Amino acid sequence: MLSTGGSINLLWHRGYRFYRRSARSLVSLVEEYANPNIGGVVGLHGEMMVLEGFARCEFVMRGRNTREFRGRLWIETGNNLDFIFERDEQAYGVEVKNTLGYMDYEEFQVKIRLCRFLGIRPIFAARMLPRSWMTELIGAGGYGMIMKYQLYPWTHKELAKRVAEELTLPVDAPRALYEGTMNRFLEWHKKLV
After folding, report:
1. What are the φ and ψ backbone dihedral angles of 143, each rounded to 5 degrees?
2. Per-residue pLDDT for 4 more than 70?
3. Which of 148, 145, 136, 149 shows the shortest CA–CA distance to 184?
């Protein structure tokens, strides 16, 4: 049992003699990265990375944690968008999910409906999205900004390195979004204007 209340099942080859020592080390690392404080920092960091990426590409932020745009207010659910950015008269509702797992599918669908209601294009900045969700997003006129990694703050680069190496999870601690991530989005944006 983990201190966070979750559980973990470890499997070892029966010929491995030092499994208890390895198990303690592995559980300790899992508890460190699964700490709610780390999760909160990682989530906020993902938003800051995306904000900086859009700002660097000269997008104007029109809203933050909002469900209102140009006089239209979404009241169907309590959901909001992390950001609304605009450039070249194109507005985008951006949802950032800096997690290892996929976001909730119902939330994904709600965010697309929210963007449609506000008259903006949905953008999901996430580590990964299932192919069927990408098809649905493209059909709604949106874009999946795939990060490939869960992004840790630079101050947590040692933890990110240990998680990546010892648990083989897709995490990284870059100083900014990779150039290719924003460049791909800019190319897509330019086709719209």
Report:
1. -145, 135
2. no
3. 145
CATH for 35-192 is 3.40.1350
Q: In Å, how far are 5, 9, 27, 122 from 192, measured between CA atoms?
A: 47, 48, 48, 14
pLDDT band at 34 (very low <50, low <70, confident <90, very high): confident
**Bridge partners (DSSP) listed for residue 95:** 124
State both tokens at 20. 């208890």
Number of H helices, E strands in the chain: 6, 9
What is the H or E stretch that residue 103 is in?
none
Q: Which amino acid is at 116?
A: R
Tell me how far apart the alpha carbons of residues 151 and 157 are, in angstroms, rounded to a whole number: 10
Which residues face 73 on adjacent strands?
Answer: 68
49-93 pLDDT tens trace: 999 999 999 999 999 999 999 999 999 999 999 999 999 999 999
Which residue do the tokens 């929210």 mark? 114
Percent over 70 (pLDDT), the chain? 98
**Domain range annotation of the chain:** 1-32, 35-192
Q: 37 phi and psi, to 5 degrees?
A: -65, -40
Please state the pTM of the whole predicted model: 0.89
Which residue bears the tokens 């150039």?
A: 179
Q: How far apart are CA 86 and CA 63, in angstroms?
A: 10
